[in-house]
Protein: Synaptophysin
Organism: Nothobranchius furzeri
Amino acid sequence: MDVVNQLVAQGQFTIIKQPLGFIKVLQWIFAIFAFSTCGSYSGMFKMSVECKNRSDSDLGIEVEFEYPFRLHQVYFDAPTCKGGNRERLFLVGDYSSSAEFFVTIGVFSFLYSMAALAAYCFVLEKYRENNKGARIDFGVTAVFAFMWLVSSCAWAKGLSDVKTATDPDRVITLIGACDEPEVRCKEVFEPKVSGLNTSVAFGFINLILWLGNLWFVFKETGWMAAFAGTYVPSQEKQPAPDSFGQGGYGQQDPYAGTQGGYQPEYGQQGGYSEDGGYNQGYEQQPTSYSNQM
């Protein structure tokens, strides 16, 4: 507990109120929504097959499927309407690649957002030191933005195929008994895929968040100032002169010589002093002139 309290005391949590940290919090939250709505899904649809002989009919054929949507492994038993015999049928398609890719990107985005928030709050000085941390952050953010684009598009296409493969009207065509004219086959209810639709929406929301975060991370890299010609590395920055005596006019005044001429120190050689002031300077020049004559 002492270590935790010390970390909390040293943390700079005000960064969360700034766009850099606030967007990371949103990325962390929406990444959870994205992979949880997809990875935890399970659905079911029901069909009925009514044979001429009622004893051979099955009015409640249930077909369950779930993530990662390897539908070719999902099977169900349907009546043949021939003396109580049944046949085992499988759904069509394997859409695990797009679903698992989407969930994987969501999990890694969640982990990286959490790590970046910890860096912002506890080691912000090292993060901004020589802009190395910000540049790494920018590169990783760009990669995740691209991955969210690819995974969201792939999962949107995969979800469309899952909906088609689990449509009861389409699955009924796989049942051989439904081709008989005296057999009545129909769907009882369709699977609910609203959660999967939400996962796709969360995927594109994450894409927008990571793209938007690129701008705020880019401003931390120092590249903008370098492109504008105003960026100076921290170890080479020149301190601003705080007085005219440091590299200012006092060292470069060409009129401040020691051999006569104009003297800027009025308090020592000029002014209206009792010892002569300006008159003292003018009395010396005629004397020098008379000696030359």
